[in-house]
Amino acid sequence: MASAELQGKYQKLAQEYSKLRAQNQVLKKGVVDEQANSAALKEQLKMKDQSLRKLQQEMDSLTFRNLQLAKRVELLQDELALSEPRGKKNKKSGESSSQLSQEQKTVFDEDLQKKIEENERLHIQFFEADEQHKHVEAELRSRLATLETEAAQHQAVVDGLTRKYMETIEKLQNDKAKLEVKSQTLEKEAKECRLRTEECQLQLKNLHEDLSGRLEESLSIINEKVPFNDTKYSQYNALNVPLHNRRHQLKMRDIAGQALAFVQDLVTALLNFHTYTEQRIQIFPVDSAIDTISPLNQKFSQYLHENASYVRPLEEGMLHLFESITEDTVTVLETTVKLKTFSEHLTSYICFLRKILPYQLKSLEEECESSLCTSALRARNLELSQDMKKMTAVFEKLQTYIALLALPSTEPDGLLRANYSSVLTNVGAALHGFHDIMKDISKHYSQKATIEHELPTATQKLITTNDCILSSVVALTNGAGKIASFFSNNLDYFIASLSYGPKAASGFISPLSAECMLQYKKKAAAYMKSLRKPLLESVPYEEALANRRILLSSTESREGLAQQVQQSLEKISKLEQEKEHWMLEAQLAKIKLEKENQRIADKLKNTSSGQLVRLAQENAAVSNAAGQDEATAKAVSEPIQSTSLIGTLTRTSDSEVPDVESREDLIKNHYMARIVELTSQLQLADSKSVHFYAECRALSKRLALAEKSKEALTEEMKLASQNISRLQDELTTTKRSYEDQLSMMSDHLCSMNETLSKQREEIDTLKMSSKGNSKKNKSR
């Protein structure tokens, strides 16, 4: 069959190739003809260009000749102007010459007029020839462009056909190679399948023998140990704990989380819509700040002010429903008790919508009756009133279906299990209808807002309120669309998950049985957890010893470094004290030197004769002052200290009366001692701060190491939990597969027993018939 198909393909391709070759020849002839025409047109274009150049040269020569004639006329006019004053002086003598000049002028005028006419004629001819040449050139260029485009198109068609032909040839060659390879692989697979069938037959025989023995053993155990079969009755089977489907629970929790987010967005949009509607009633058609609004709008505003008490419970009900779906529970309609509370909250909100709907319609009618309302605005208000009615009806329809879905968790007879899928489908249709209605409301309200903004009496408050309402309506539309698409995407999963329940049964019988099953499930999980208590991990002895050595070495090195830092800080404090002392000494020496220089200068100015004697006396006085300084220093070396608020004051004894210099020394020594004390305190505080900083740094490092170890342990714990869940899932799957195999083998054994019994019956009938025949033969 494959070779016949290939031959058919080759024949079709050969026919197509022959057609393409014929078309290619025709196209080549057309291209050659067009190329010849384009070459002829190019030659004509060259000829026209040459004639144009000749005409341009003639034009240039004529213009040059015209310029010469114009210059000549100017010269003649100048000569005429010069000859006129001379002719006045000698009129008599100039009559003859004037006659000659007049004749010459007439001759020149005639000649000039002829030249001008000839020039005009040549200009006209040149202009006509130029226009004709341009027209011909444009026609030839357009024709050349069309021919070139046609040639390019023909060439592109030819290239495309050749490319297509080559691609088809390559494709057929590849198909041929693939088919050959595929045929070889199929032959190999057929051989392998034959070998596998033989092996499977042998395994089947072995399994048949093994399972027959196990079946006999299991039947004997069942007959001896099992008192009754609880799966036989649906009331008892509903109390059995089903197999834990962790993926189903995680999927349901994820879906519930997404639904909660969508409901939260919808709730915020509804709150904004009702709140901004209330603000709009206070502004339009009558501003409450200027005049009193109508009693109808006052009542409507009062009802709208209560919207949060009806809208907020929707979010709370959905949050409780999300929190009730955990990994340990079994999530079906019979176990979702919190869906009933959400349905009740939705019912209360629909009662609120029914209560405000007449006031909303009357408010729109009041807007239509106002003098500011135009015909277009009245039409938009009528459309909005119809949309509000539709929105309330859609909410009522949605609440009806959600109440039906909440019935299995409270009243098992209220909704049949066969109708679950149809109710869910209707919920999706109602959500899509809600989205369509919200799109209409958004469209009509945007048109209404644009019309109101164009009114001359439109205030800024009205414009901003309309924009806020429009944004809330857009948010409602987006939220409704997201919820509708989300529900329609997960509708198949919802319908498929309804069969989740006890094994070999249609589902949970009643909410009470479902609650009992969940209690049994919790007890079983607690029992399994108590059996599987992990041992406390301990640090190995060698690792603990290594950690202790590291800790001791780190503490010893830290103490040594702290001592070195303390010693270096003490040395630095001593050096700083000496530095400050010698700096003060240097300043005092400078002051004394300046005083002595000032004294010497004053005395040199005052005294002129006894300068040397006074200088000697001054030097003696300086030496006496130095001796007094030494004495005061000795006295200061044994000071008397008195404490005060600013520190310890060092002073001399009361017997000695200090002068100015001794007072300065006292102040200097006092402040030096105070500076030394403060520097020592500062250095002590610095050393303590460095020590505390080192300790904090070590503690932070330990804390970082502890956090890293904690993260590693948490990751290991997560991996262990994932492995445990994976092993549990594998265990459940293996159990299911083993049970399915056992059931299949039991069925097979039953069929084998039936065939064996039939064969035995046939053998017995044959024996009976053979016995009857033998008796007949004996009698004969």
Automatic annotation (TrEMBL):
Q: What is its main location?
A: other
Coiled coil region boundaries = 3-72, 137-196, 558-592, 696-737
Q: What is this protein called?
A: Protein phosphatase 1 regulatory subunit 21
Per its UniProt record, what Pfam families does this chain match? KLRAQ, PPP1R21_C, PPP1R21_helical
Among InterPro entries, the record links this protein to:
PPP1R21, PPP1R21_C, PPP1R21_N, PPP1R21_six_helix
An example GO CC term for this entry is: early endosome membrane
Recorded source organism is: Macaca mulatta
Keywords of this protein's UniProt record, alphabetized? Coiled coil, Endosome, RNA-binding
